Amino acid sequence: MVVRLRLSRFGCKNKPFYRVMAADSRSPRDGKHLEVLGYYNPLAGQDGGKRMGLHFDRIKYWLSVGAQPSEPVQHLLFRSGILPPPTMLAMGHKGGPRDTRPIDPLTGRVITLKSPSSADESESNEGVKKDAEDATSNP
Predict the structure, then answer these.
(1) In which domain, by residue range, is 21 found?
(2) pLDDT tens per residue, range 61-72
(3) Residue 39: how many CB atoms within 10 A of its CB?
(4) Contacts within 8 Å (CB) and 24+ apart, 56-62
(5) Cβ atoms 59, 37 nearer than 8 A
(6) pTM of the full predicted structure?
């Protein structure tokens, strides 16, 4: 029995809502499953509601025992930081480049990495310039 981590569709017409499930690869998309591992809402509201919720410990367990994620689940797991980035072949099909910025699984918002402040950069640059001047002045 090959176990797959895949999405199962819920919701109304034109308003999809997915559950991330561990299921036998031979069962239908919305059929019998082994365990519910989280949810994914691609149409989250403008109020910044949750878009994704995952049980990280259970997903890591299923991956450790050999479960294979489907392509959409693989992208979700990459964006949440569980899996390494997928190959470029997987990212290049179906309409062009994908958004690979990491998102916070609790809020569903894009995580922005804070760069060092400009004051720190200017101090480090001054130190480099002084070292370079000292090296050129001493023969």
Answers:
(1) 1-139
(2) 998 998 889 888
(3) 18
(4) 56/80, 56/82, 56/105, 58/22, 59/5, 59/20, 62/3, 62/5, 62/22, 62/35, 62/37
(5) yes
(6) 0.57
* Dist. CA 21–CA 118, nearest whole Å: 45
Rounded to 5 degrees, φ, ψ at 75 are: -65, -40
CATH number, position 73: 3.30.1320.10
Cα 133–chain centre separation: 46
| Other CB atoms within 10 Å distance of the CB of residue 23 | 22
d(CA 139, CA 11): 76
DSSP-H helix ranges across the chain: 56-64, 71-80, 88-92, 118-137
| Number of independent structural domains in the chain | 1
